[in-house]
Here is the input.
Amino acid sequence: MNPALLGLVTILAGVGGCLLYFWGSNQILDKVIFPAKGPQAGQNINRANIVRPWLFLFPAMFALGLYLAYPVFETLRLSLTDRDQGGAFVGLANYNQMMGEPKFWEALRNNLLWLIVVPAASTAFGLLAAQLTDRIKWGSAAKSLIFMPMAISFVGAGVIFKLVYEARPADQNQIGVLNSVWLQFDGGIGSFLFLQVLPAIMLLAFAAIVAYVGWIFVRPIAESKQRGGGAGYVPLRLFVGVAALYLVYLSLTSLVGIFTFDYPYGQPQTWLTIPFWNSFLLMVVLIWIQTGFAMVILSAALRGIPEETVEAAIVDGANPFQIFFKIKVPQIMGTIVVVWTTITITVLKVFDIVFAMTNGQWETQVLANYMFDKLFRANDWGVGSASAIIIMIMVSPILVWNVYNARKEMK
Amino acid sequence: MDNIAGSKSSLGWVVNISVVLLVALWVFPTFGLLVSSFRTADQIVGSGWWASLFPSEQTERYRAADPDENRVQRGDLFVVEGNFFGDNGAPGEIQSWGTSSRAVDAYQAGDVADLGDGETFSVDAEGNYVWSGNDEQISGRGQRAFVTAVSPPEFTTENYVNIMTSGDSNDNMAKAFFNTLTVTIPATIIPIVVAAFAAYALAWMDFPGRAILIACVVGLLVVPLQLALIPLLKLHVGIGIGKGYLGVWLAHTGFGLPLAIYLLRNYMVGLPRDIIENAKVDGATDFQIFTKIILPLSFPALASFAIFQFLWTWNDLLVAKVFLIDATGQTTVMTDQIVNLLGTRGGNWEILATAAFVSIAVPLCVFFAMQKYLVRGLLAGSVK
Here is the structure.
């Protein structure tokens, strides 16, 4: 059958079938099983009202169970069996095999890098854009344009950025923006300022911010010792503190690297093949897409801040930066966390960008693409399912946190 | 807000410039691809797309026609006349010219150059030249001239015609476009109907276990669909659907449901209780309340979800690759075809850029037309 016709039939059958089911099942319930007449009319109405919600819920619950809940358990089972041995139970053999593969560790390491960089950068840019665009007349037009990449597919964005990163031989005109900018640097004073001093300043700023965030998390522990009690989540706070310390250490050591690195001036670079840095170039694509999302949500949150608090700060003589960091940001912290976790989920599932741009070559592998590789190229369902379970494990803290918050909100 | 104290913000200009830079940074990459899709293959590899926005200057060396064959005598002078560009026409308007390689822009169009001893040479804007002098001067080889022409930006829609009508099935996007459309429309509409009823039950009907079900939906919102690939593919093959449209519609419906239920429930809970209770008092059944009251009032939430689901299914690659595209390749969607083109046509930017833009154009139109609902939906359910 012609696919378009099949589509039309499916829409009619799907929508019509649903409506028919809801209408018909309600009719049968009210007229046949528990008719609202005769000696037991009152009791029947009550019984019908007990059953009815489940009629309304059944199709959705069935689909959710079959398409999302069941696969979680089935994948868990598959990850413990071997397809080649006819689905025999093999315990953790698949996980062992996966742990032995360098590609898996590369994917995991890259994924962790993605998890730190993309949500942080998207949220930061989103916050910046939200704060700036709220203060100007053409702000909504600007927002619209920054938000636009949200509508573009990861594959489309991949093509867009492949053109940006495109490299041509040195004797030809460069058609990629990045190389064309890169060739403007010749090792002179401009290069020194832009490629060594500027990154150094940014790195220092990053280290300072990380140290500050770490301190915010650790401080309650130190204070609670003096006052006795009061600091919850001690393991989490300690973990964030140690992570922050490690990041600061990393930034400070790479500061030396910036000044000793020998830049290959004048040679066009095939950016996507430079290990380690190419991962960041792929992250740029996702940051570019997600910033608009962060901006829209944070902008709404910023507008929801009670004006009295800002007015009071102005009266007390706070400057715009103080108002922003000390008055506004603390009040929208909850929204920032929501944005952060939402982008984290997207990052964990990122597949299309890597698949389209490098397909995991040149050390850019990520878990979702590793999994796809295992499932559909190597046809190894055991290891593929095992890596899917790893993604699920990484998602589950957020899942628990979301459910916890949703329940709290309902009460 | 910062002006409340009466002082005008001194940061006004800084803010404006920062936003301009930010917007430029965000629009620039897409714009580059758009511009590239309107250039020919030679133009794309010849210069960066940003160069095509400005008039381009080219300086070429030309030689006047052979004087021994073409000169005519006028009075006591010999003259050679002609046009540098011949039948091809000028590459653009001539801006400047010169007779020496050391000063290629010595003269403007229309100027007459004095070459000494009465010998003169002139070039006008269309490339017509007049070379005159005495018998000895107008002989030997033709006078050379360096001509700088400025050609205006030049764009073509040829790429789009090619990609939609190409005979090569790898390049032709028309089929993939309709396949994508075929996947998208049922996959957008069906989950709305299923989810709307469930959302109503979760919002306005009292039954034991409601809170747990809502928590389940919130939990399922973040379950990565990667986990569902193999079990569901096995299921589809097992019950005879196999790989095909039906499978991909069902899969998108299943994956879209949590967000749909969550968004719609949150919206329906906010509807005024009075309307529903009045209707109940007047004897309306739940089914009537739902179809006659709740559904029309929930239009904004329905629209929000419809846009999400549309963008998500239109832009999807993974679900289509697993549940739809079989070995024959007849059911390929645009995202998949673009990935294939990236592999086979890596350097042919005229094809890649155009193919990508054919795929991007529809969601962009939907985005700009219905941004209001998209934002509203995001704010209501920023979990997915």
In short: Residues 1-8 of chain B have pLDDT under 50 and may be disordered.
